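Annotators were shown the component list below and the corresponding predicted structure, then asked to write short factual statements about the assembly.
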Amino acid sequence: MNTAPRVAPPWRLPAIVAAAGIAAWFALPDQLGLLTRLFTTALLVLSLDLVVGVAGLATLGQAALFGTGAYAAGIFALRVMPDPLVGLAIGVAAGACVALASGAFLLRYRGFTLLMLTVAVAQILYSLASKARDWTGGDDGLSGFSPGPLLGRFAFDLEGRTAALYALTVLVLGLYVARRVVDSPFGLAVRGIHENRARMAALGTPVFTRLLAMYTLSGALAGAAGALSAQTNAIVGLDSLGFAVSAEALVMLVLGGVGRLSGAVIGAAVFTWLHHTAASINPYHWLFVIGGALMVVVLMPPAKVWAWLKSRKAAS
Amino acid sequence: MAVLANLLVDGLAYGMVLFVIAVGLSITLGLMRFVNLAHGAFAMIGGYVTALLAREALWNFWLALTAALVLTGLLGALLEALVLRHLYRRSELEQVLFTIGLAFFLIATTNALAGPQVQLIPLPPELAGSVDLGFRTLPAQRLLVLGAGLLVAAGAAYTVTRTRFGVWLRAAVDHPDAASALGIPIRRVQCASFAAGAALAGLGGVLGAELMPLEPYYALKYLVLVLVVVAVGGMGSIAGSLVAAVALGLVETASKYFASQWGSLFFFAAMALLLAWRPNGLLKR
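Structure shown to annotators:
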């Protein structure tokens, strides 16, 4: 008899996302730009899920990591070489470095103080990027670079076919890495810290080091998302470091479900689709829709609604 | 010298506006542990109501201001009694999401009702001019802001430390269950404090209309500044909020005078340093 808990194989979620992504790529050939944005955003939300959902740290400063990755990849492509994969690696490294450096300061605090400090870090980077016009282009944004062909063979075409597949590949890889990490002993330790910090410390887990490692991994993924956004849009705006990026990513995560990796992808997909539909009518309608959706999600959490529907089904 | 004096007056006025808006949020956060990101929307509504009544309906400025304060207070009480009190026992994240959704909703409503343009509040003649204090001449509006800020600070401190309501409030902060067992009407205390905080935010929105222009995104644009003041001052501490608001107001004004190209860098750097030094707030027990 097999009594071990059934755990989904680590490749299942990435495989489902890859299949759905490729199907969408074939089905919506004139919406490839939207799909690329969706894949990039999903990776950003995934990185946020590692901090908020897995480690249980409230943050509104994920834009600091995303924007740094984007600027690093953009500046690298403009000044050094246009190869997209090396640029991606640079973005990942930049995001991880910023997360490591800021995390060493931020993770000493908790709760509301931590939340406000993450906002401060993102705003300080925003001001610095706005000041360093020579490097970042300031308010005008960083442009004038274009990524070279992928692996030296597949050029980024105008319709965005390569870009969409490239973003999907990186997202699937990110999902696989995140799944493996979350299910590893290290991931279990971080989830334990989320549930009871004092007990994990008493068990001998180095709480600060584990959290810092998870924050750095999240920074690497957010940096990858930033680099993708820079390469597929061929422009980096100051708003990639802005407060709205952090807030929207958090909204998407909650819409999809905090703490589940699939929630990050679902939330990003729902949000991007809603945004695309509502904002094309009127940007203020969009605020009605998202504001209403947020209030409804809090008052009637999706998990509770599912449970209610299931109990109804079981009763009938 | 003249530059320094101007800086001082502007910085103090800015700090007072921040304080008046922040004090309600500080009490909500400290008293009910409720993270209300829609607090900026109350300031916006106060400003909008005053602007529309005074400009379109041609009401007297003081009458419009009073109407706006009553209206934001009522709105705050209504929201608290109907919806928000059910969220007190939820997690911080859920509170953040609900209230930010509410703020989005109010932004969209404001835009639908009044349009996206900046609203100006026509000042009555006695505020539009300047006042000669003997040693300096100051704009009357700045003096009103400074006076109102000090009055709010004194009034709030008096209410909290010297009145029965203040005793109830502090009892409800320190130990809600024991306070309720002693017969203190906790629900009414919470509702009244929330309404008072909302009305004060409305006052701040009117007072600060010259420094923070009234537009639909006001509710989110200045929210971070107010949250920073509350965090640095210490949640629930009125004196702490005043000190933090004045200090950060001076820093922000000084950096606008001398280093405007650096944006809000110094404001947030000062905040990070202060919070790193005293994570629970400047004057927190």
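Statements collected:
1. The CA atoms of residues 141 and 237 of chain A lie 4 Å apart.
2. The interface with chain B takes residues 52, 58, 105, 109, 111-113, 116-117, 119-121, 123-124, 126-128, 130-131, 243, 247, 250-251, 254, 258, 284-285, 287-288, 290-295, 297-299 of chain A (CB under 8 Å).
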